[in-house]
């Protein structure tokens, strides 16, 4: 992990760009974080449109996390941003465009081609990022994942024991195989669903929520399109992380 | 409205039993409520098992509301508690028992017979209670409804303009006619669904949530049976009321 820039944002947050091998990433830490007071970490899974385009929303989530006493970090997804395109992705995306334009249903094979290779490559990269981030003296545990591509969050929740709780966003295609993996998830989950998201298969999202094996899982469905998650829903997700990642702080989330 | 008893609970809440005609009810107010500082009101719709049996849960919700600066009130449902049984109800309930014991599906006609007369009688009673409660100098607006029988809450939200926001509990039978009324609801809604509630038709609950016409509506689905709403879900419902009924207090629910 190699830091390439550092700036102090005006609300007491330090933003550092880094590379991990050839993968770009960003780390946000509250200025109060230090080896003497390491902070818990939230991994911010980005949407698959590249960190540059997603930056405003990611930075807003990171500042919110920092205000709650968390570090936050994200890395570029395979094939997104300036990372090399993968020919198989391009082919699957072209097929998706053709299918949607033709008004045809998106079949299981196409969903598999769009998502499974992405999950297979991204999950080990997030694990490597987690190794590097937890090696920093100012970062401690526990770790949460708050993610844009729900299949990546699902796989991570199964294979990565260092992740203690996850906020997942319903709204991307989910391969059938991931429904099976969902049954193996046991960590507390907070799932956000935009009820009228035009690009989202609502029934698939409800089925996936049903499939998760966690004994504590909550579905919060709200109105508005894909990017229209209301502010109060963001607050509820933040409270979920505070409840699960800041054990010493639990009292603060009970009676006010 | 005639008060029949008054006691001060140990956490600064005054509990008064009352009768409204022949309908028994309970009013809880924070001791700080007075004509000089009237409090907003939350109507607590009880489950149809009688106020005596439901008292512990209702009183807990009322104390929580009082701690947030709300008065809370409830009245006995028609045919519940010590109120006279209605022969048609008894017949419908016997038919329901027979149907469930035979493992048959509960048909639309039976659902209508179980719920529609209850809604038709209960809603004007709640409106009369609201008249009486808002005439008390220590009670002001706005008014929220937090209810046990979702069809009563739905009808009230349509016909009673003094109700500004509602928390509804999915989990009771809903007549087809109420789905039509749901489309006319426009106030902010917060709907709680116990995902694995054995007595609940989950799909009907999701369909009803979809039908509500409100532009702000949120569905919070949690694990656990009918009465197992987790504490954090109760907190989220309380925050919903604070956001909508205590306008001067809005800042307190945004960034912490």
Number of strands of chain A: 9
What is the subunit arrangement here? homodimer
Strand order of the largest sheet of chain A: 1-2-3-5-4-6-7-8-9
Outline of chain A, from the CA principal axes?
A: globular
How many separate structural domains of chain A?
Answer: 1
Beginning-to-end CA distance, first to last residue of chain A: 41 Å
Which two chains touch over the largest interface?
A-B, 29 and 28 residues
Q: Give the helix tally of chain A.
A: 8
Structural class of chain A: alpha/beta
SSE sequence of chain A, one letter per element? EEEEHEHHEHEHEHEHH
The CATH H-level homologous superfamily of chain A:
Alpha/Beta hydrolase fold, catalytic domain
The major pleated sheet of chain A works out as: 9 strands, mixed
Q: Which CATH-level-2 architecture of chain A?
A: 3-Layer(aba) Sandwich
Helix content of chain A: 40-55%
CATH topology of chain A: Rossmann fold
What is the C-alpha radius of gyration of chain A, as a whole number of Å? Answer: 18 Å
Labels describing this entry:
alpha/beta, Rossmann fold, disordered C terminus, globular, 256 residues, 8 helices, 24% strand, homodimer
Describe it for me?
Chain A is of the alpha/beta class. Chain A has a single domain, classed as Rossmann fold (3-Layer(aba) Sandwich). Chain A contains eight helices and nine strands. In chain A, a hairpin with a 4-residue loop joins strand 1 and strand 2 (13-20). In chain A, helix 2 crosses helix 3 and helix 3 (108-134) crosses helix 4. Chain A starts with a strand and ends with a helix. Residues 249-256 of chain A have low confidence and may be disordered. Chains A and B meet through helix 6, strand 9 and helix 7 of A and helix 6, strand 9 and helix 7 of B.
């Amino acid at each position: 992990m190699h830091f390439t820039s550092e700036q102090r944002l005006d609300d007491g947050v330090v933003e550092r760009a880094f590379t991990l091998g050839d993968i770009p990433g960003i780390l946000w830490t509250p200025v109060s974080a230090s080896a003497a007071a390491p902070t818990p970490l939230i991994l911010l899974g980005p949407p698959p449109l590249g960190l540059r385009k997603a930056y405003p929303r990611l930075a807003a989530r990171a500042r919110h996390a920092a205000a709650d006493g968390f570090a936050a970090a994200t890395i570029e997804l395979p094939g997104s941003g300036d990372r090399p395109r993968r020919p198989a992705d391009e082919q699957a995306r072209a097929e998706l465009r053709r299918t949607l334009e033709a008004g045809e249903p998106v079949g299981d094979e196409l969903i598999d081609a769009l998502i499974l290779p992405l999950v297979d490559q991204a999950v080990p990269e997030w694990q490597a990022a987690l190794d590097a981030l937890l090696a920093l003296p100012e970062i401690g545990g526990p770790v949460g994942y708050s993610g844009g591509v729900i299949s990546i969050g699902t796989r991570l929740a199964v294979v990565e024991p260092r992740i203690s709780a996850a906020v997942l966003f319903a709204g991307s295609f989910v391969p059938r195989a991931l429904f099976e993996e969902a049954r193996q998830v046991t960590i507390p989950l907070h799932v956000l669903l935009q009820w009228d998201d035009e690009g989202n298969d609502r029934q698939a999202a409800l089925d996936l929520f049903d499939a998760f094996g966690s004994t504590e899982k909550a579905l919060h469905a709200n109105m508005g399109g894909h990017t229209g998650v209301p502010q109060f829903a963001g607050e509820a997700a933040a409270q979920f992380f505070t409840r699960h990642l800041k054990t010493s702080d639990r009292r603060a989330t009970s009676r006010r």
